[in-house]
Specification:
The protein is α/β, with parallel strands linked by helices and 335 residues long. The chain has helices at 11-22, 54-63, 79-84, 86-106, 141-159, 191-199, 227-239, 241-248, 265-276, 300-306, 314-332, and strands spanning 2-6, 26-31, 45-48, 67-72, 111-117, 129-130, 163-169, 171-173, 206-209, 221-222, 224-226, 252-257, 263-264, 282-285, 296-297. A seven-stranded parallel sheet has the order 3-2-1-4-5-7-12, with helices on both faces. Strands 6-15 form a two-stranded parallel ribbon. The chain is globular and about 55 Å long.
Length: 335
């Protein structure tokens, strides 16, 4: 199969492109390089530009008429930044995606996998497990852009020949097995990147943001899933796209992508220290704007529909993140 990957120079996008290649498929990359590094594209077919550029999309399809599906990952993704810059988030994540979907539908490219987010779930009434049909309460502009695009896709799919598989990611961590891609931000905002920096002395300490949440140890609960497992979920979903849509009997479907277990921030710190072999300096702070208490995925639906479950442990993901950090200066030119 040949698959268009928007945002394919990004962290998850480039990892998914590699997973597609390893499975015998051909990724075609469309990325503005606003954040993702050019080196992550490698020697794949690449188009630098905007997802809302209809002329560029037309050229991509003209030059690759055999595209079987589109995996749409291009988006702004930093929660605190979305609070500070809501216009940019709604413009880039919502308005531009609308143009992309309408153009793809008009070009006859009807299969779309959309990268959504588990951050839009409401806090569960009991426990922390969430299913796809559970209540939603997106707490940040970032999360609200993802919810809006889910609704857009559902409406467009109901009215046209476009078909949509929506994957709600939980918290991807780690690197690909060959350490060709990984987290590229010099100062990553996500929890594992911050832990790595603190462990290596690149910052004074790791900050636990929020210690009075209604959780067993007061820190947020997340479902941390190896990014290579997330990439494999995309491969399975692309390969079984038509079968999934046929089985659900609807023009669109939503599936959770996670390990299916909750891990608190304190538990993640303990697991990290076990893999790293040393203690990491830790301090505590209030929660950040837009932060959620957290949840973990029920993954029965994706297991049933595409035969996917996460195969890697939290410890394996941590080890791969540390290994990538040791190699990324060689690839990206900075630590």
């Amino acid at each position: 199969m040949k698959v268009l990957v928007t945002g394919g120079a990004g962290y998850i996008g480039s990892t998914t492109a590699k997973a597609l290649e390893d499975a015998g498929h051909t990724p075609v990359i469309l990325d503005s390089l606003l954040t993702g590094p050019r080196v992550f594209v490698g020697d794949r077919a690449f188009y630098e530009g905007d997802i809302a550029d209809r002329a560029l999309l037309g050229r991509v399809v003209d030059e690759h008429p055999d595209l079987d599906a589109t995996i749409h990952m291009a988006a702004r993704i930093i929660v605190p930044e979305s609070v500070a810059l809501p216009y940019e988030y709604y413009r880039d994540n919502v308005a531009k995606s609308l143009e992309l979907f309408d153009t793809l539908e008009g070009l006859g490219k009807h299969r779309v996998l959309f990268s959504s987010s588990a951050s839009l779930y409401a806090a569960p009434a009991e426990g922390f497990e969430v299913r796809e049909e559970d209540a939603l309460d997106p707490p940040s502009p970032y999360a609200r852009t993802k919810r809006m695009m889910e609704e857009v896709l559902q409406d467009v799919a109901a009215a046209t020949d476009l078909r949509a598989v929506i994957l709600r990611y939980f918290n991807p961590i780690g690197s690909d097995p060959d350490l060709t891609t990984g987290v590229y931000a010099k100062e990553p905002s996500h929890v594992l990147g911050q832990l790595v920096r603190a462990a290596l002395g690149q910052q004074d300490a790791f900050t636990i943001t929020g210690v009075e949440h209604p959780t067993p140890d007061g820190t947020g609960v997340r479902d941390y899933v190896h990014v290579w497992d997330v990439a494999q979920a995309h491969v399975r979903a692309v390969e079984r796209f038509d079968d999934v849509i046929d089985r659900v009997g609807e023009p669109s479907v939503i599936m959770n992508v996670g390990r299916g277990e909750g891990v608190s921030v304190r538990e993640l710190v303990a697991a990290f220290q076990g893999v790293f072999g040393k203690e990491v300096p830790v301090r505590e702070a209030p929660p950040r704007p837009g932060d959620a208490v957290g949840a973990y995925a029920n993954v029965d639906r994706i297991a049933d529909l595409v035969g996917w479950r996460a195969e890697h442990s939290i410890e394996e993901a941590i080890a791969s993140a540390l290994a990538w950090t040791a190699k990324r200066q060689e690839i990206l030119g900075y630590e």
